[in-house]
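User: If only I could read backbone structure tokens as easily as an amino acid sequence. Those tokens are not coordinates but codes from a learned vocabulary of shapes. Could you go through the record with me and say what the backbone is doing? Here is the record:
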Amino acid sequence: CNNLIDEETLITFFADADEDGFGNENITVEACDLPAGYVNIGTDCDDTDPLTFPGADELCDDVDNNCDNEVDEGLSQTFFVDEDGDGYGTSDTIEACDLRIGLSSIDGDCNDADDSISPGAAELCDETDNNCNGETDEGVSQTFYLDSDEDGFGNPQEPVSSCTQPLGYVQN
């Protein structure tokens, strides 16, 4: 007979819009029994996403899934920047939680502006180090010899390595 109803017996419940079992601490109701759409834990940091709640597994999605004020923690890996998209990166690295376009798990690209030049490329006879091994035209150029007297036989003491036969040189 004190004009109050259920005093000291009401429980605070929290609205759980995403139905993940954790409610929004800012939307509450006091009741004796658990109302539909409410829970008794109000620690959800994003009550619009059912994958985001305290203790959730962290996902690689730029979201704080487990409500610990850190994003994608523990998921970062080191990748190499791959600007030309050839599958090989440079020595420049970036931290990310997954392999994305513009990144590679393999480094060693000696020309990241040309997708035809990488450690996996075939060497071409073009005076370029196509396969990034520090050598130019290896295995594809030929040796020619200076033929000063134009008898069709070159001097073995004056070789030159080239993709095409230079003027005044022969293969013999």
